[in-house]
Each structure stands twice: as structure tokens, then as C-alpha cells.
Amino acid sequence: MLALSPSSIAPRGPPGQTGAPTRELALSVALWLSWGAALGALACAMALLTQQAELQALRREVSGLRRTGGPSRKGNGQPCQSLREQSPEDLEGCGENGESIRRRRALFTPKQKKQHSYSALHLVPVNTTSKEDSDVTEVMWQPALRRGRGLEARGYVVRVWDSGIYLLYSQVLFHDVTFTTGQVVSREGQGREETLFRCVRSMPSNPDRAYNSCYSAGVFRLHRGDILSVLIPRAGAKLSLSPHGTFLGLVKL
């Protein structure tokens, strides 16, 4: 009896069809690889063209800048250097480049403020004068601090030589048992006289405690030729002549 092997009983396909699937797979892979290579080559060509176009544009821009900077001359008659050798100060005198730099600097440079005439005067008392007929006491002043020429102390008054807005302050230290006392700061000028401010204080009746200071201040527009004075509206008023107790001052703002 004959023995049968497995290979003898396995079905056999038709002749000529044994390697067909393998060849089709290889053909598909080769087709995809060829398409990929073609796309890669196209992308490289486009990138190269783009870089060449940008390089040409940069070359034209550099050529234009060199033409602008080269022939121009600065104010001293010397030709401008090449753009690489120029400093910002050199570029200010070179053609359109310099004009644009000057305009940009002008925008960011703070404008210079106008010169302001500064005047200040601080006065301390020298003496007092009592006028019985007008029932006032006047204070004679002397400068303790002076700045500028816009203000001048003349005995009992202060004369203004520079018109403007001023801070005006005044203090009087009284040593008086009168029930109330105080001072008046007045201005005379432009054909009229007016009170700028008035200060009033009540005083203790005990002579040992009858010390009180009266301070006032304000901002006023003063004109050239104005005359300022401090008056105590009572004859024979008693006050301290110490520089830290009684004083008068003006500062131009």
C-alpha cells in the first residue's frame, strides 16, 4: 500500500499565479516612492526660488542705501562714509537718512522749558513805628534772604519790580494784653489800595501769658510797581522783633 505525504494532498493553484501578490506589492511601494521623490524635489525647487527672490530684494535695498549715503555730504563738506562705518551722529548729516534720524530724535527729545525769572524775599523786623493820628503800628523790615531782582525792601514797604504770581506769607508774634490783635497785609498799586489778607488773634489777659502769633498766607498776582506793607491796626501795639517770631516773605511761583 502506498504512503501519502501532506504535500501530495495539498491543493495546487493554477500554474503562473504563484508570485503575483508579491509583485503587486513591490510595484505599489515603488510608485509611492517615486511620487514622494518628485514632491520633495518640487518643494526644494520652490524654496530655492523664494530664497533667490529675497536675496535679490536685499541686494537692491543695500544698493539703494549705498546710493543714498554715498554721494551725500555733511555740513563740513566731507563725504559721508559707508553705512557700516557711520555713527548716529554722522548719519544726521547724510541725505534722507539724516533727515529721518533728526525727525525721530526731535520727537523723543524733551522740549526745553522757557527760562523762569525766580524771585524770593524773606524779611525780618528791625523796628516798629506807632502813628497815633492814624491809629496804626508799622514794622520796618530788613532782608534775611533775597534771590533775584524782582522784589525790593524799602523801610516799611516792599516794592515789586517783576510782575507775576507770588506766594505771600506773614507772621507777627504779639506780646500784648489787648483782647484781640492782628495784622493787615495791603497792596497799593495801579491807582488803588486793597487788603490782601487779614489775621486776627485773641490775647490772654495775663501779662505773663500774653504771647500769641498770627500767621496768614496766600497766592496773589502782583504787578510791577505794587507796594506791599504790613500794618497793625492799633497804635502802640507790642510785638516781638525776633526773626523767628515776626517775618514777611514773598516767593514768585
From TrEMBL:
Q: Name the keywords, alphabetized.
A: Cytokine, Disulfide bond, Glycoprotein, Secreted
Which InterPro entries would you find in this protein's record?
A: TNF_CS, TNF_dom, TNF_Ligand_Superfamily, Tumour_necrosis_fac-like_dom
* Annotated THD domain residues: 119-253
Tell me yes or no: is Oxidoreductase among this UniProt entry's keywords. Answer: no
List the subcellular locations.
Secreted
Recorded hits in Pfam families, A to Z, give: TNF
Tell me which positions the record assigns to the signal sequence: none
Annotated segments matching region Disordered: 1-20, 64-96
PANTHER family documented for this protein: PROTEIN EIGER, TUMOR NECROSIS FACTOR LIGAND SUPERFAMILY MEMBER 13
Tell me its family.
Belongs to the tumor necrosis factor family.
Name assigned to this protein: Tumor necrosis factor ligand superfamily member 13-like
| The organism's taxonomic lineage, starting at the top | Eukaryota, Metazoa, Chordata, Craniata, Vertebrata
Q: Which gene encodes it?
A: LOC105978190
